[in-house]
Structures are given as C-alpha cells and as structure tokens.
Specification:
Elements lengths: L1 E9 L3 H19 L2 E6 L4 H7 L5 H9 L2 E6 L14 H11 L4 E7 L12 H4 L3 E7 L7 E9 L2 E7 L4 H16 L4 E6 L5 H14 L6 E6 H10 L6 E4 L1 H12 L9 E5 L12 E5 L16 H13 L4 H16 L2 E2 L9 E2 L2 H13 L2
Parallel strand pairs: 1-2, 1-3, 3-12, 5-10, 8-9, 8-10, 13-14
Antiparallel strand pairs: 4-5, 4-11, 6-7, 11-12
Helix pairs in contact: 1-10, 1-12, 6-7, 8-9, 10-11, 11-12
Bound molecules: 3-isopropylmalic acid and magnesium ion (MG).
3-isopropylmalic acid binds next to helix 4.
C-alpha cells in the first residue's frame, strides 16, 4: 500500500530523532512492500525564524493532504522570551486544533530491561503498562476568554475551562475502545468535587459506560490519581482525562518508565476501534527539543521510532508492521544497546543513528 507522511522535524533534537523514524519507516516499507512518501514542512522556532510564524499555512495545508504526520519537537531557549509575539509551542497547539486531533494517546510501559533506570522502586514500577488518553483540543488550552489586562487595581488574567457534551463524549469513547483491546479497565479522571466541567464529564462517562458492560470503569479525582500513579501505578490500564490534567499526569507517568526518551505518542482525529482501522493522526515523541544535545548524535530515537509504530497501527491499519517495529526495539534493548539517557553499567553505548540502524537491521532480519 502507499501512504504519504508529513514530516515536521521542528527544533533541537527533532531532526535527529525524526531521521531515525524515517529510516525505520523506510525499512518497514521495503520489508513489507509498502510505499511511504514524505513531504516536509516547518514548525516551531525554525518556522518563526524563517516565516515569522510558528505554523505557516503551507505546513498545515501539507499535513491535511497527507495520511499521517511525524513530528520531532519544538522550542528552545532562543525563542523563550516571554514578551515574544509568538512562541514555538503556539505552532503545536495550532496544529492540534487545525488538524482536529482531539485524542492524545500516551502509552507508558515499563520495559523489564530498564527497571533500573527509574527513580522508583523496582517492585512499584515492574508491572506498569498503561495508556493515558488526553483530550487535546479543548479545556483550558483553548477556552475563551483567555487574556491578560491592566485595571486600576493591578493586572488581571483569565483562562477559561469549557467543554461541550460532544467533546467529552468522543474522548471518553476513545478510552472505552482502547480498554476493549486491553485489560478492560478504564479510569476516568476529573475534579468533579470542584469543577462544573468535571461534573458534566463524570455524568457523560457514566452514561457511555452503560454501552460497554465488559469494561470496568471507575471515576477518580485528579489529585488522588496523581498520588496513585506513584503509589500503585500498576493499578491503571486506560486513563481518560481532560487536556490540562492529562498534560500534568502524563509527565508524571512518563517517569514510571525510566526515560522520557522511550515514550511515543499519537494524536488522533477519530476514534480508533476494531471497525475504524485508519484514523488520521500526528505522531511524536513525548520528550521535548533538548537543545543542549541537538545535533550531537546522542538523543534517544526510540520514542520517535515507537511513534512510527503507532502510526503504522492507528493511521495505516498495519498491526503486523507495527509489532515488527516494537519487537525490533525490544531486541536491540535486550542486546544491551543503550543511548546515553538509559545507559547503565555493562551496557553498550550507541549514538542516535547507530540505534536507528540497529533497529532497522533487526526488522530486516525477521
Ligand atoms: C505536551 C507539551 C505541550 C502541552 C506544550 C509544549 C504546549 O507539554 O505535549 O505535553 O502542554 O500540551
Ligand atoms: Mg506536557
């Protein structure tokens, strides 16, 4: 089959890791007889430098014409001035909104060979295997009004948390559909003891739960969830939550797996289900642009490579190919190859490109 992929490498280590993602996709293409075509565009700081905007219209249009998007990272100290007209992050938010990517999937899995790279006790993290579903185009990030102004009694600012029934329903459904293909346990996270949006969220989650009698769903307050993630993370299978809570909880959850450099993500424009095997999506590592190590061939490309596996799965309907990428990653880790971020004693240190090549080789030798 033939697919077109938009490449937005962005800033910092973005280009380093995206290169390896493309290398792996090319290998999958050859090995399984698919054709992947790439179109590249600019986003983030590099786009601000070139065009004065973090997401040029051409980049958004290009993405719309493709089957999926592979993104590196955006941002860096160069564009960090709080008084700047536009920030690199604005490009990412505009892209999410512009492509209607409402469902952000962030799987967190502890790989047995990396149990020593986390700051938590082995017994706590050893069985971690969860996926956080974060609402991505609503809530505080996009609610209006959102502004800062001056009054005679000092400066003021407002952000707005707003959700519609439709927005809540579709993201809750993503949670249920994913739970169906996993351990059949869904935790809906809110702050229903304080927020109206959360009360609506909880009502709707309860209503949809009746359509999925096979799934055990519980409601959890976000503060309690933050605690449980550290206390007993293996409790969770699928978590579904709103935009801001999801942002915070996923940074916390990422630490359960040892390194940010390991974790992929998918942002989808539809509800993935057994029937719906191809959803337009954007795929990116969850780590940032790490400008201090950009271009030095030391960034861990695994998060990006696992993101391409999610692309194969959710946007191209190619689960076998996705599994091949995942098992090649496991194999290379099992063999002891490590980038700097997950290096431990007795392991073999490799750079970004060597890691990508090793993983590609293992796919070829299947
Ligand atoms: C994330 C990031 C972004 C977010 C930033 C860069 C705007 O933290 O993807 O989690 O807050 O959504
Ligand atoms: Mg975040």
């Amino acid at each position: 089959m033939k697919f077109t992929i938009a490449i937005l490498a962005g800033d910092g280590v973005g280009p380093d890791v995206v290169n390896e993602g493309q290398r792996v996709l090319d290998t999958v293409g050859h090995h399984f007889d698919h054709k992947f075509e790439y179109k590249s565009g600019f986003i983030g700081g590099i786009a601000i430098d070139k065009f004065g905007t973090a997401l040029p219209d051409e980049a958004l249009e290009m993405c719309r014409k493709c089957d999926a998007v592979l993104l590196g990272a955006v941002g860096g100290p160069k564009w960090d001035n709080p008084n700047a007209k536009t920030r690199p992050e604005a490009g990412l938010l505009a892209l999410r909104k512009g492509l209607k990517l409402f469902a952000n999937l962030r799987p967190v899995k502890m790989l047995h060979m990396l149990e020593d790279s986390t700051t938590l006790k082995r017994a706590v993290v050893c069985n971690v295997d969860m996926i956080v579903v974060r609402e991505l185009t609503g809530g505080l990030y996009f609610g209006k009004p959102q502004k800062q102004w001056s009054t005679s009694r000092g400066r003021r600012a407002v952000d707005t948390m707003a959700y519609s029934e439709r927005e809540i329903e579709r993201i809750i459904r993503v949670g249920f559909e994913l739970a169906m293909s996993r351990r059949k346990k869904l935790t809906s996270v809110d702050k229903a003891n304080v927020l109206q949006t959360s009360r609506l969220w909880r009502q709707i989650a309860g209503e949809i739960a009746r359509e999925y009698p096979q799934i055990t769903m519980d409601n959890m307050l976000v503060d309690a969830c933050a605690m449980k993630l550290i206390k007993e993370p293996s409790y969770f299978d699928v978590i579904v939550t709103e935009n801001m809570f999801g942002d915070i909880l996923t940074d916390e959850a990422s630490m359960l797996a040892g390194s940010m450099g390991m974790l992929p993500s998918a942002s989808l424009a539809g509800i993935p289900s057994a029937k719906n095997q191809r959803t337009f999506g954007l795929y990116e590592p969850i780590h940032g642009s790490a400008p201090d190590i950009a271009g030095m061939n030391i960034a861990n490309p695994i998060a990006t490579i696992l993101s391409t596996a999610m692309m194969l799965h959710y946007s191209f309907g190619l689960p076998e190919e996705a599994a091949a990428v995942e098992s090649a990653v496991m194999q290379v880790l099992d063999e002891g190859h490590r980038t700097m971020d997950i290096m431990t004693e007795g392991m073999k240190h490799v750079g970004t490109d060597a890691k990508g090549k090793l993983i590609s080789e293992r796919i070829r030798k299947r």
